[in-house]
Amino acid sequence: MNGRLVGWMMLLMAALLPPVTARAELRVTAVAEPWQPYMGPDLPQQGFLVELTQEALARSGYKLDVKFVPWARALLLVKTGEATALLGAYHTSEREEFLAFSDPVTSVQDVLFARKDSAISYRSLEDLEKYKICVVRGAAHGKEFDEARMLHKEQVSNREMCIKMLMAARVDLIVGPEDVTTYILRTSYPDYYPQITALQPPVQTNALYVGFSRNVPDYPLLVAAFNDGLRKLRDDGTLARLAKKHGIALAGRRGPVN
User: Fold this and answer.
1) 112 SS3 class
2) Which end of the chain is more exposed for a tag (fewer CB within 10 A), N or C?
3) What keywords tag this UniProt record (predicted)?
């Protein structure tokens, strides 16, 4: 094969490929907080929410890159447009200003945790006025709880710190997603796990979304692509298969801490 023919073939192949800018647009950069058992850097395929998002976006030709960072940092990155998507977000009116939310993926129950020897119980938020409650900075737990001014909330950077403060009696309660907090207790603090109980009633049952930054170009197309992919995953059974693979109960409870 002579050099001229090779040259023409290379030009033809280059012409058939999409432009570099177009190919770059098919890559989505997402951020997330380590949120086991739903997602985390050490989980298989980085967890249920990551694999689900990859599969949903892949149906429209998008590739997904995920970076795990603290929650407050994740919010900042999508707010400024440095990241395209935020995985595992609850919907709030404040976040609506900088995030376009997908259709809900599943739901998660937020509860209060207390030391068993505290004998704390409650029926309404008003019953909690005298207690110190540890919350993760930037996290949402439902409109009623988030806007309850009478509650004494101690903000920290992560749930592990909340657990340590609870066991050191620096706070009386911690609030968080039941599945996630239980996972942390079982895997990272097995000695603490039998000493902590989840209180009823739940603080809130929250739908779980993927949020797309309003500060990136064509974000409506990304939302539409994800929603279309999510619908297809539900219809063809892939969503249920992924949930079973990762041990996730879709829109259901995994049981309280005992």
Assistant:
1) strand
2) N
3) Signal
